[in-house]
Task: structure prediction
Amino acid sequence: MSWRIVYIAEAEEMKLYLDNLKVIKDDQEILIPLSDIHTIIVDNVRTVVTGRLMNKLTEYHILLIFCDESHNPNLFCLGLYSHYRVYGVLNKQLEWQDEIREKMWQQIIKIKINNQASVLSYLKKEPEMITKMKGLANGVLIGDETNREGLAASLYFKGLFGSDFTRERNAIDTFNAALNYGYIVLRACVARTIVAYGLHPAFGIGHRNQFNAFNLVDDCMEVFRPIIDLWVVLTVGEEEFLTREMKQNLVGRLNAKIRIGGQNQTVLNAIDLYIQSFIKSMNSKDLSLLLYPADGIAV
Result:
């Protein structure tokens, strides 16, 4: 299945018309079937959204993201009861033992670092750096006790953006701002899928911060982060700030094709397959059931 991501840059109102999203601007009205939509991004603080529409979006498991006055994603809306068997799913989730959680975290970090190495290879970076990244992936221990993730990240980002680059969440340079924007959108998409399958997003396996309501989301999105990194490298260039066109390019990237489970799928479909297989792997304690993006390259 292929879903649409609707980017609302200018609109006066969004409302429900039968089972369609109606977008109103001046005298123009646009109808989009809700069954076609995965995510709606509202990048306009003046747009009015009706309560009837928001309630209907939860029935269709549609993610709604609002941006702030700086045009950065600031809020996303998910239904509270998206899964018909929420107690049964949650009960199994709470039975996950530390052993399988730490082994899965080890697997996720290995996949992430290998996908980062694939991005460096795709961009034709130094072979020595790529070899070192693969060595770090092979050396990940259970629970990533020796923090190979952090060592790889330092090497990786300097390889992408130069030796002077430092990855910071609150930095205002264009590269960091673009990474932050992309990760927030990706995080929201993963959260939407996790909640739709009845998992509690706060109960993580690697992230276990008591103040983080999305620990599991942050766990599961790790293997997809290199997709955002590649988008930033290919899109930002010498730009001094994120433009609307650059953000729309990111939206398009989520519908690009990526290799998973021996098939080419859109990134959004890949997230869905990944979360389904993640649940099966954790419940059966069989990591071989996990389907994941093979190289982090979305085209």
Summary: The chain has a mean pLDDT of 89.
